[in-house]
Design a protein that fits this description.
By secondary structure, the protein is an all-alpha fold. It folds into 2 domains: 1-94, RNA polymerase sigma factor, region 2, helix turn helix motif (Rna Polymerase Sigma Factor, Chain: A), CATH 1.10.1740.10; 99-191, Orthogonal Bundle (Arc Repressor Mutant, subunit A), CATH 1.10.10. It has 9 helices and no strands. α2 (15-37) crosses α4, α6 crosses α9 (162-187) and α8 crosses α9. The longest helix is centred in the last third of the chain and has 26 residues, at 162-187.
Length: 191
């Protein structure tokens, strides 16, 4: 069934239609929350919180305003993730446990253990650098580089201007580059 039809049915109280919307979008929402919180349990909590808030606010959603449903959900997820960071002080907590993220290449019979270790180290350094960013810069970086959204879409999610998004993204990238420069120079990864 088409997403717009599911939204209309869900707005009329059809719980099966809302369940379908949940099934179609849960992975994306979880992914954003996990990247933000670095913890699967907290990301699950934010996933649930996001869809509870979405369910209660569904009557306010209007596709005619030009924001697609995924954007609207992601905005709720961003806010719930920021709230979770504030409440639980997750910022300094768990670093990304790369074993929780399935890397198909690492499980391949042709995988290179040296490259896998290097990739893991680089991901860890990027995650450390991400944790040093402000929550807004972190979310913009994640949406742009992990979720592959453009600046217009990010501006919609963040309820901001494209200029502000570009400024925060530039600062985030610059901060991460400076933090990674030492790693690259020390190990001469040839990046």
């Amino acid at each position: 069934m088409e997403e717009l039809s599911l939204i209309r049915l869900a707005q009329e109280g059809d719980t099966l239609a809302f369940r379908s919307l949940f099934d179609e979008n849960k992975q994306q929402v979880f992914s954003i929350a996990f990247r933000y919180l670095k913890n699967a349990e907290d990301a699950e909590d934010v996933l649930q919180d996001t869809f509870i808030k979405a369910y209660h606010s569904l009557h306010k959603y209007s596709p005619e305003k030009g924001v697609n449903f995924g954007c609207w959900l992601n905005r709720i997820c961003v806010n719930a993730s920021i709230d979770a960071l504030r409440k639980n002080k997750v910022r300094e907590a768990h670093s990304l446990d790369t074993e929780e993220v399935v890397d198909v290449r690492a499980n391949s019979p042709r995988s290179n253990p040296e490259k896998t270790a290097l990739d893991k180290e680089i991901r860890g350094k990027i995650d450390q650098a991400l944790n040093k960013l402000s929550p807004k810069q972190r979310m913009i970086f994640i949406l742009r580089h992990y979720q592959e959204y453009n600046t217009r879409e990010i501006a919609e999610y963040m309820n901001s201007t494209e200029g502000s998004v570009k400024k925060h993204l530039f600062r985030a990238v610059d901060t991460i580059k400076r933090r990674l420069r030492r790693l690259i120079m020390e190990n001469d990864y040839g990046l």
